[in-house]
Amino acid sequence: MELKSEKGQTLVEYILLIVVALSLALTFYNSEIFKRLFGPQGELGKKIKQQNEFSYRHAYPPGENDQNPPKDTREGSTHPSYYNQQENGTRFFGPLNAYPK
């Protein structure tokens, strides 16, 4: 038997390709390795969270400075991200001249 029309063959092939790709993606997504790395308590998420919290608190990435930041300096004047000991001043900038009154 010979088919004279091949209409729809491309559509069927693309549907099969999409089904195979989705099945591979779902297999990887449901794997233990994916859940261990990216799950709710995943290793990668915990590491990124710790780095972000440290960077936000101390204004530099962990491991960049050898000095240990103070644990609880509420006033902020001696915190390494606020006070620069080499320049004997804060790291914040202000205007060169006073604003007119």
Strand residues, percent: under 5%
N-to-C SSE series? HHHEE
Structural class by helix and strand composition: mainly alpha
- Globular, elongated, flat, extended or rod-shaped: what is the shape? elongated
- Summed up, the helix count is 3
Number of strands: 2
Cα distance, first to last residue? 97 Å
The major β-sheet equals:
2 strands, antiparallel
| Mean pLDDT figure | 78
Uncertain segments: none
**Helix amount:** 40-55%
Radius of gyration, whole Å:
29 Å
Neighbour order of strands in the largest sheet:
1-2
State the main characteristics:
single chain, 101 residues, mainly alpha, two-stranded antiparallel ribbon, 3 helices, 2 strands, 4% strand, elongated
Provide a quick synopsis of the model.
The protein is mainly alpha-helical and about 100 residues long. The protein has helices at about 10-30, 30-40, 45-60, and strands spanning about 85, 90.
